[in-house]
Amino acid sequence: MLRPVPQAKTSSGAASSLNVAYVEGLDHLRGFAAFMVLFHHGFWVSLGMHYPPAATWNNWPKAQNPLFAPLIETHVFVTVFFIVSGFIFTLVGFDKKIVYGKYMRNRVLRVMPVFLTALFFGIALFPEQFEWDAFITTATIFGDMTGAALRLHPVTTAFWTVAVEFQFYLIFPFLIAIMNGQGSKPLVWMIALMIGLRTVGFFLGDSIRDLHYWHLIPGRLDAFLIGMLGARLYMRWKHDPRVAKLGPSSPFWQGIVTALRDHPWASFGFGLTTLLGWEWFLSQSGGYPKQAWWKIWAPTWESLVCLLLVLSYLAVAPKLWRPLKRLFAFLGDLSFSTYICHFMVVGLVIGDPLELERMPGLMLPFHEWFPGIPPMVDATLNTLLLAFPAAIALSILFYNGVERPFMRLRIRYTQASDEAAP
């Protein structure tokens, strides 16, 4: 999901936050993750349009090259969104008190204007599919219950992440209060509980797949909690004044901090290689649709892998070429709007091989212009030349017309803590 996070900006022009300083690189990661999801959907829909059959849960492709695994198992990047969410909110709230009403006001201003604009557009586009109970489910924190939410494909197809994110929003002030007062151990126990619930679910339920990756808290809370724990490492790494409240660090965690500080590029290379290795394993093991016992622990492991990528990228982000950083920051600004609108853009300019009559698309016929062109090259060109420009254009309109004006209404919601942390 694309996960919106509050943070101050430098010269990129985005609305600033009053609650946390700018962390260079987090916006890059959000933008990269959002456009990877866009590329994933555009790419596979393009293949299905010109080279059927279309990829479905029952016809899931398998990567022949480790470098192509992220194009297939792109759902991993949703985990990055949730990692970043827990990470940045912990930087905001550690050793502080959160005023719950003001905090939720900011969260509503950050997410709901874009979300509701797209939702009401979908209702206007497909009025025959409107149902009051499904509308209430979608417009509240229960939109990740796919059987009960409005099905307005392609407009609402990616909306489930907004519901999961809002569920995190509701409980975060309590989680950070627990961390501030009791340390990190209760969060580790919560992660252990999620693993336990998935173990029970594997034997009692019909789909460990859905418990694992898709819409529900038992498969997603790991990422948010591990993002919170990762923020503690980041504070040690950056010599945050609040580090004294964290207590002593073990040699293992101190070694990670030292590697990030002294060997940023090697750390990033290791993080990227680990992510590619995980995605290759997923692809070769059957990918998202696979029902397997190892998906009990997979969300926890995947969250640790994504946290390593996040931390190691933050180590190298300040060293990148300045124009490149500005481009990444620009894409990061658009990331939430891009995520919300990307499915409707794909349906318009690429089409949908499963609903050709309603969404025929506007694909460029490279396979006719250049006979013998590899299918993957054809799909890549159509995605880059059609879906990317259209998504950026619509995202700019969403961002400047809705998202940014409402973000500027946000207020400070933290206060200095009167209690010493353990």
From TrEMBL:
Q: Which UniProt keywords apply?
A: Acyltransferase, Membrane, Transferase, Transmembrane, Transmembrane helix
**Where does the source fall among the domains of life?**
Bacteria
Name of the protein described by the UniProt record: Acyltransferase family protein
Q: Which GO terms describe its molecular function?
A: acyltransferase activity, transferring groups other than amino-acyl groups
Give the matching InterPro entries. Answer: Acyl_transf_3_dom, Acyltransferase_3
Q: Which Pfam families match?
A: Acyl_transf_3
Where is the Acyltransferase domain positioned along the sequence?
24-396
Name the residues that span the membrane: 32-51, 71-95, 107-126, 158-179, 186-205, 217-235, 265-282, 294-316, 328-350, 384-402
> PANTHER family given for it?
ACETYLTRANSFERASE
